[in-house]
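Entry 14. Ran structure prediction on the chain below.
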Amino acid sequence: MVCRPMGALAMVASVILAMGIYASTVNEFYLTSRNFSGIFAIVATLAVVACAQQVLMLVGGIDLSVGPLMGLIVVIESFLLVPTASPTEQLCGWALIIVVALSVGLLNWVLVDPIGLHPWSQR
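Output, structure tokens:
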């Protein structure tokens, strides 16, 4: 007998497998090494973010700004980190990305620690 958490995992795995089979029948390039390398690059980025979120959740917190911050970083990258940019423009793009990420982190810290704003009720 499958316990409840494993049953849910089996359902999600079967849906993902069915979607993969369907995608491979519709698109002949789906099961190529180029597509897998692109998918693995995306999964690696999301896995790093998920690990960081997991650490935060283990201490009883949650950070809802991670998704929007990732979107903002992608927008900044799409304008500044292009192949036609000079090395100086590339360096400025990376510096801006780091400044934006640190600024959001600082804002989150100010809201949570000194001000005492928490995403959950403390009753």
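The chain has a mean pLDDT of 88. Will compare against last week's run tomorrow.
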